[in-house]
Amino acid sequence: MIPAASLFLALLIAIVSGATWSLILARRLSHHLKFDVPGRPEMVELQAPLADNAFYLSYYYDVARSPTLAEGLAKLLADKRSEAPDTVNALHKFNVLPEFGVVMMQRFLGIAMSPYAFYVWIIIIATGLGVSALSLTAWLLGGSLFCSVASVMMYFSVCYTPSMQTGTRLLGSTFALREFWGVPAMLAQNAWLIAYLNVPNYDDKWASGLLLAFAGFTCVFELCWQFAPFVLLLQLLSLLGAYILACLPRQQLGKLAAAG
What we know:
Distance between the termini: 26 Å
Low-confidence stretches: none
Number of strands: 0
């Protein structure tokens, strides 16, 4: 049983780490994109996205400019532009479900903000949540708050290594690429996996809830990133290795394989 004080401190470190990284990323993207400057014309905002970034944002604006969500969804399901004269299901082929979800969130919450600014803010929040998940994963694996702090510090340092800034998507013009959605989803999915593996009794309701959350975030991960199946294959192979080394019961291996 995890002590309440240790759990509280681990959650506190995770929240502070995620919020800190969100603030860093917000400042960085604000410098490059000026997304938080109110009153900017839409055509000025859309000068920043490049290459694949603009490709994904075009689907976002297809939905954002539609009078209703149903019409926006219909455009994604029957995309006549990307591979003309063929009609393709963009929602399935290009993993643009996050874009539809962001528009749906803005309309549901009724936030008076430009679609562009709202999209970037959601990206920033999602990335921060991914850092929080990384912090909790390190704490669960290492059993120490130091592990949580060390993992976040290493993440920060790697992202600010000059040779890694392009790879970690800190240059501003790449904020709509699938990695910005896929990596936080992967980190959250892995956190649920490690939490499940750490329960003392796999048969109680708490373990079942963790397994269900793991399955749910696996689906989210696959819907966000086209390379998710390769990562999940490596994850499954690592679980198989744990079973071979007698570190994971066969029944739990089967449940995790089915959930993943």
